[in-house]
Amino acid sequence: MLRNKVPVLFLFAASHLLILPDLFSQGPKKIRTIVVDAGHGGTKDPGATGQYENSLRSKEKDITLAISLKLVEELQKQLPDVKIVPTRTTDIYQDPREKARIANEAKGDLFLCIHADSGPLKQGRRQIGTRTVTRYRVSGKGRKKKKTPYQVVEPVYEYFKLPLLRNGTSVWIFAAHKTSDKLKAIMDGDENFEIEANGVDSLESNFDFSTPEGKIIAGIYAKRYQERSDRLATMVNEEVETTGRQALGVSQRQKGIWVLQATNMPAILVETGFINNPEDERYLNSEKGQQELAEVIAKAVKRYKEQVESVNNNPKPANNGNAAEKNKPETVPEAIEKRPVKDSKLIEVKSNKIKIDLFDDGDIDNDIVSVYFNNTLLVDKRSLTAQAHSFTINLVPGKTNELVLVAENLGSIPPNTALMIITDGTGRHEVRLSADMKNNASIRFELKNNN
Ligand SMILES: [Zn+2]
Fold it and tell me: How far, in Å, from the CA of 61 to the mean position of ligand 1?
């Protein structure tokens, strides 16, 4: 079977109809391949270098290679069922495109870039002696102009680079609004990928990303990758915190990490430390420091893997806080966070696979709505008509499954009303929801099993 290289989602595309249910809680995403990139390399690209006075004169390319080799080893030890692919294991030059190509061809599920940071250094000076110089005093004008020499003693300085005060580890992900390269990487990818629904249905499909639907899906993948990258980056930062070292948090880089954008997978970049900070430089060059960083990153990757895979494959009811926490999507969309649900209906269903037909209720007055299922956007600003807009959702057993209707306008006859016909295989429910610009409406599903 072909291995998926995108977050797998249940996907149903008909002529004009596109269905994208919640893949965070359902996409059975196995982490099978992890690509580790030792940043920079070779004489052409040494990266940052230790330049402050008395620095170890270390080169970023050597530090990244040493840490990456240890990280590869650590990952192999901790995740023996995962294939770990290093972009380089020796001091060779690689174009960023080459690094991205290796990652994409390996069909990585994660891309870990190891770097070391630097920053502008201030110049210091110290007096190392004196010298005597001759100067001239000018007096008179024209022909009477006279130059009188005199001697002065001047200090002689030595200039040097001050060490960087900043230190610590930071984690970077690609910028949210800079998804165009990520989209390109996704669309350039292998067109064969696995489409699964809740781990049950499985089919392989040739998917054309050049179609309008394909572009939307690629966009969703990019968003998913970003969310997953952010999740992993946060875990790395948390693990760094446990070492007592300065953890500088997760940031989005607006430029300069092309490779994060060009890879068709979640990707993070770890700036392991500041090469021009004496404490950090020694740490980065030490066996202990390199090993600690490798262990910290591997630990975060392991946690991430467990979380992603348990969310997908463990539909047991969440009885303890920890499991509930794991099943909770990372972010609550603004449209849901800002508008409370006023109109909520509880429906008992017998199957976890639910078909929904969405119509405008009553007069067709150009109501525009969005629909979220378990905080994932399913219907994005769609105008309701008398014709059904149909989609399928997969309920997650053991949690509250909520479908939220968000009004994007009020239509010509407020409020914004929708009729949903809900089919669960055998039963059929008609639900009318009304939302406005201040309040959402929702349907909560209760799964009643026959056994
Ligand atoms: Zn670098």
Answer: 8
Output the CA 118–ligand 1 centroid distance in Å: 8
Q: For residue range 228-270, list pLDDT tens digits in order.
A: 899 999 999 999 999 999 999 998 866 556 778 788 889 999 9
d(CA 251, CA 230): 9
Specify the number of domains making up the chain.
Answer: 3
Judge whether residue 309 has pLDDT over 90: no
Amino acid present at 392 = T
Distance 110 CA to ligand 1 centre (A): 19
Q: Which of 6-10, 125-129, 340-344, 359-363 has the highest mean pLDDT?
A: 125-129
Domain that holds residue 364: 332-447
- Integer Cα distance of 33 and 429 in angstroms: 44
**Which residues are bridge partners to 153 per DSSP?**
132
Please report the beta strands in 408-439, taking only residues with DSSP state E, as ranges in sequence order. Answer: 416-423, 428-435
How far, in Å, from the CA of 325 to the mean position of ligand 1? 34
Q: How many angstroms from the chain centroid is the CA of residue 310?
A: 19
Same domain flag for 282 and 171: yes
Per-residue pLDDT at 378? 83
